[in-house]
Amino acid sequence: MVDPPQRDLIGQFVGSDCDPCHATCSFHEDTCTLKAGDTLQIEVEYVDEGWIPLFHRCTAHAVPLFPEEHSVYGVDQALMETTLSPTGAHLPRTNEYVPEALTITDITVVDHSPATEGRRPTDQY
To answer: How far is C-alpha 103 from the chain's CA centre?
Structure first.
């Protein structure tokens, strides 16, 4: 059974070690800086009994459904939306605690791509 994403994602750090109070969009050629209060879409997948983020999307790159080009057959994937919050986190590389670091505090499931959907390897067609 796949656990709900809230269990694994609430409280997860989404900034960067270099600038923990800002997040970035994975789909900008130039830097796109997101701050507390901004909306962030997150593509996630269920791996080893837990949800992990794949890509971050700003509102300019938001999509209505989990992107087919990122879907994988046999893996539960979802598109989530959150409002970035400065609730504090330990930085992944240094374990330093930053009280205003951006985290995920609420989650709305925009779309779910079950393990039985997604792209199949081309040798299975």
So the answer is: 11
> Model-level pTM?
0.84
For 75, residues 6+ apart whose C-beta sits below 8 A from its C-beta are 45, 46, 47, 115, 118
Residue 80 CB coordination number (10 Å): 23
Q: Which pLDDT tens digit goes with each residue over 55-84?
A: 999 999 999 999 989 988 889 999 999 999
First to last CA, the chain: 28
Cβ proximity of 47 and 72 under 8 Å: no
User: Which of 99-114 are b and which e, b meaning 16 or more Cβ less than 10 Å from the residue's Cβ?
Assistant: eebbbbeebeebbebe
Q: Which residues neighbour 54 within 8 Å (Cβ) at sequence distance 6 or greater?
A: 42, 43, 44, 45, 70, 77
Residue by residue, DSSP assigns 64-91 as: SS--GGG--TTS-EEEEEEEEE---EE-
